[in-house]
Amino acid sequence: MSGLKERLERLRASAMAAQAAEKRDEAESTEWSARESASSPTSAEEAAKLHPAFRRLGVEECTNEAGSFLLRRIVYPYPYRHGRYALEDLRLCAPHLQPVAWRQNRSDKKKRWVPETADEFPAPEASGLLFLDTETTGLGVGTGNVPFMIGIGRYRQDAFVVEQTLIRHPGEERAMLTWLQEQFRGVTHLVTYNGRTFDWPVLVNRFILNGWRRSSAEPGHLDLLHPSRALWKYTLPTCRLSTVEEERLGIIREQDVPGSLAPELYVRYLGDGNPEHLYGVYVHNEKDVLTLASLAVHFGHLLGGGLGTAAEEPTDAEERFRTGAWLEQHGQPSEAERLYDLLAEATEQGEGGGEIGWRLALAAKYKRLGSLHRAVPMWEQAASLAEASRLPRLEAHLELAMYYEHRLKDFASALRYAESALGLARRRASLVRLSAAGRQERERLERRVNRLKRKLLREQLEKTAGFAE
């Protein structure tokens, strides 16, 4: 009994110590901004101690109450253009990003201020956007992944300013995060590329591990990966930022260090202390931040009615449809309708490329609107493309079979498309294992074919009887 009592006393003492520590933590910090300190560059004498390679890059040592880290600042005057767009354009384009910001933040339960409709959502301002990109020691979002470099970009007075932090060893992380907290003041949205699922969770983990608690007033998100995928998933080889910037923003990087090499180069730096290893990482991160600003301008132009003027209009049929669908989804139905009309005209002229998906989607839209005269040519083209496909889709044949059977009462044409659909279904079954749904679909096709045969036979008998009379 005495041994059990001693163990209970030890557990009670441990719990009381943990509660006391928790109370101290709460007193020190109840949210992200618990610690506010002025971070400032060091003196010229201390700066001279930096490696010459750092000084050539314009890197300075920055200190605050939590310690020191390295900081690089690059100022781009507003006339500066990154690719097709001038950075100053975002001052006009940022408010047009309102529907994107609303859609990305409305499901976040932490942001109770997000209204029910996009119209009530406050329009972003360029001054409230913080463009953020991190270089980390790994690829996951676990607690072992450390952001050794953080790049941010902001509009300040008459320039776009890029700032990059670097920690020379893990002991400098807290000082870097303290500085980063200061930069969040006045920020309404973090603009990233896959940052909502990577950069931000990594930073959240690091804040928590360094003693800060999550705040209920975190910045909103503008993750530009999502609109990029919506527009270019089917037309670009990949939606990596490097591909998007080259193919759609006119940005060509020469001798760029891929972000995937950043962890290895940082390890080399930690091994021998030579900053030359990090030169390419600095440049890569800087260009990523600039590209985020340029990409935000592009989407702002699309939503602000600048398609075809400020922003190039897509010529690829698939991309034109995806752009129209995205614009319609984000409150620009008239511009979307214009793109759909261009696609319909191209389809009627036998043009539009070899993609089936957008034809079926747009035909379905026209069917809902009752514009069958525009849906039918798209189904016909999609049917021809399906017949030439190794794994054909059946939707176009089925729609045409229903159209001819129910709308035109042309049972012969309906039977032709139904039999073609059944043939395609059997071809698919010979190549891939049919699911239960696939078997049911084939059975429905067989019943449709048999029904149409009976209707066609009845029609022929009625005609024959009419002639006999």
Structural features, described:
By secondary structure, this protein is an alpha+beta fold. It has three domains: about 25-305, Nucleotidyltransferase, domain 5 (2-Layer Sandwich), CATH 3.30.420; about 315-390, Serine Threonine Protein Phosphatase 5, Tetratricopeptide repeat, CATH 1.25.40; about 395-469. The chain is built from 18 helices and ten strands. It has helices at about 1-30, 45, 50-55, 90-95, 100-105, 175-185, 200-210, 225-230, 240-250, 260-270, 280-305, 315-330, 335-350, 355-370, 370-385, 395-405, 410-430, 435-469; strands spanning about 40, 60-65, 65-75, 80, 85, 130-135, 145-155, 160-165, 190, 220-225. The strands form two sheets. An eight-stranded mixed beta sheet has the order 1-2-3-8-7-6-9-10, sandwiched between helices. A two-stranded antiparallel sheet has the order 4-5. A hairpin with a 2-residue loop joins strand 2 and strand 3.
Output the strand order for the largest sheet.
1-2-3-8-7-6-9-10
What's the CATH topology name of the largest domain?
Answer: Nucleotidyltransferase, domain 5
In CATH, the homologous superfamily of the largest domain goes by the name: Ribonuclease H-like superfamily/Ribonuclease H
Number of strands: 10
- Give the overall average pLDDT: 88
Main sheet specs = 8 strands, mixed
Number of domains: 3
Distance between the termini: 112 Å
Order of helices and strands: HEHHEEEEHHEEEHEHEHHHHHHHHHHH
CATH architecture of the largest domain: 2-Layer Sandwich
Main structural class? alpha+beta
> How many helix segments?
18
What's the overall geometry?
Answer: elongated
Strand content: 5-15%
Low-confidence stretches: 21-37
* Radius of gyration using CA atoms only: 30 Å
The top-level CATH class of the largest domain is: Alpha Beta
Region (Disordered): 15-47
Pfam families: RNase_H_2 (PF13482)
Domain YprB ribonuclease H-like: 130-298
Coiled coil: 435-462
